[in-house]
Amino acid sequence: MTHTRVFSACFVSLLILGCTVVVCLVDERVTAAPASTIGYHSAETISDAIGGSTLPFVCGTNSPKCVDYCHLCYDFYEQPTMECLSQLVEVLCLFNFEAAMESLNSTDWCVWGNVNSLYSNVSFCTEEISDCLLIPWPNPLVEQIFVDIHSKFFKDCPTEELSDPPPAIIFALVITPICLIPVMVSLVVLKTKNGDGSS
């Protein structure tokens, strides 16, 4: 019984000591100045080093091109908007992608090895511009862009996993149960008529 009390007293004192250490650490973190980091998804107001002009909105800093993207949006739309994103993606991402796709034969469009890097580049480009403008990615505009890309370039590509079987197989699978039903009913009626069935 005394061992339990000693253990309980030690446990309670360690618990109190641990809580005070944690509270002190939390208090130190609260009083310390927050560190600002420039990273993948961090944001800050961008100041142009050459002109010294500051944008009136927050701009992403995940790419060195963010300053240019934000300045273009500010010059034409006064803020980062979906219209600005649409124009930037159209000019910077889709133009290059479509030119590269047109340089390939249409039969090469369905070979993933030929279009993998082009597709990845357009995906990265849309993500980079969206992150710079602090617009969530993916978004409805980007989704529609990829739907348009697929309907324009990849609609005739065969997909082995999702293709329908040939019409002859579909016909056989549908007609077999339909033909078996009257045969089974006829057998049951004949068997009961002859009195062979025992209940």
Automatic annotation (TrEMBL):
Residues 1-24 form the signal peptide. Coiled coil: none annotated. Keywords: Cell membrane, Disulfide bond, Membrane, Receptor, Signal, Transmembrane, Transmembrane helix, Transport. The chain crosses the membrane at residues 168-190. GO terms for cellular component: cell surface; plasma membrane; receptor complex. It is a single-pass type I membrane protein. One of its GO terms (biological process) is regulation of G protein-coupled receptor signaling pathway. GO terms for molecular function: coreceptor activity. It is found in: Cell membrane. Belongs to the RAMP family. This is Receptor activity-modifying protein 2 isoform X1.
